[in-house]
Amino acid sequence: MKYLDPNKINTFIKKSENKQLVEEIENEISKIISKSLKNQNNKKRIEKINANETKYKITVLDNSTIKNLPNWIKKQIKNCSVIGSTKKVILLPNGKKYHIDNHLNDLTGGEWSFFLRSVINTRFQTSGAESYAHHLRKIHPSPKPPQLMKDLIKFFTKENDLVLDYFMGVGGTLIGASLCNRRALGIDLSKKFINIYSKANNFLKLNEQETICGDSIEILKRQKEINNFLGNKKFSLIAIDPPYGDMMNREKTGEAAKSKKNTEATPFTKNSKDLGNMDFDLFLEKFSESIELSIPFLKENGHYIVFIKDLQPKGKKPNLLHASIIDTMNKINGINYVGMKIWSDESINLYPYGYPYSFVSNQLHQYIMFFKKKC
After folding, report:
1. Number of H-type helices and E-type strands within the chain
2. I need a surface site. Which of 64, 79, 138, 273 has the fewest CB within 10 A?
3. Does the 119-373 domain belong in CATH 3.10.310.10?
4. Residue 168 contacts residue 144 (beta carbons within 8 Å)
5. Residue 20 class from Cβ within 10 Å (0-12 exposed, 13-18 middle, 19+ buried)?
6. CA dihedral 214, 219, 225, 227 (to 10 degrees)
7. Are 165 and 149 in contact (CB under 8 A)?
8. What is the pLDDT of residues 148-197, one digit of tens each?
């Protein structure tokens, strides 16, 4: 609010003849104020709780413990203190807390809680600096936003951990990894998509991650290229958004048809080994094989992230593809489904499907499903 002049806002509201616009502005301002007040109250409550905790100097921690702390904490370690009887919680100067036993990520407790929302709404920019080279990456039918991938990677890894995406497309996962200082390996059938990732990466002036062009299943079988990347380490996270059968091979409908745009199918590649050129049953078979082959490269307690979007129901077929993926992966020894996020992409244009005869949903959401390698 510090960038807004309240007097100018009031003058605009009084003079405006667009009542709907005024209502929208007032509602948005009300939300901002409400959120700000809530944050202030939470901050005061947390400060009060922290004040009542037993505090110790940071010197109560041994050197090996401090050495293993995230870099962002070590940079301000002299201004930190330790609180609580267990002496395992570090209190930062800004009041945030980090638990020494957090072996999953480098997040504070508050950041951890915020990530646990089961539904996320985004409207990522598709132009300008905040689009992260979308003007290049948009050649792919469904490029993943690097900002989203960065947030997911930060929760399931620590700084300098290793990430694998063996359906990398134009590299949203790899760019996301670069944005949070993780190392990543990407694999894709399409040299064109890998080249686009390289161009986008150069445009963004990021360190380029390693890529392999080829059939991911064959590469996982051979193991050599992946082991060369890993050395004596393992991946902490495998994040994939595979082509779910031949859905991209279907003619476009809806807005594309109405706007007289190109309605032709947009398959990822014409390669027969592309999972996007298979019927769904064959896709599930190959997808399951890829998971089984990748498990040995994932560390104990490491995670899989899998994206999927359901198809519209057809007759008695609900087409709940995300449920099929969960069932398929849960049958594989060594991994368990642990939950999901529903990601709503608000940048998708709405279209009156079914109007005026029947209900047909605008599917703005995708499922981001999480699986864990069992100990």
Report:
1. 14, 12
2. 64
3. no
4. no
5. exposed
6. 150
7. no
8. 999 999 999 999 999 999 999 999 999 999 999 999 999 999 999 999 99
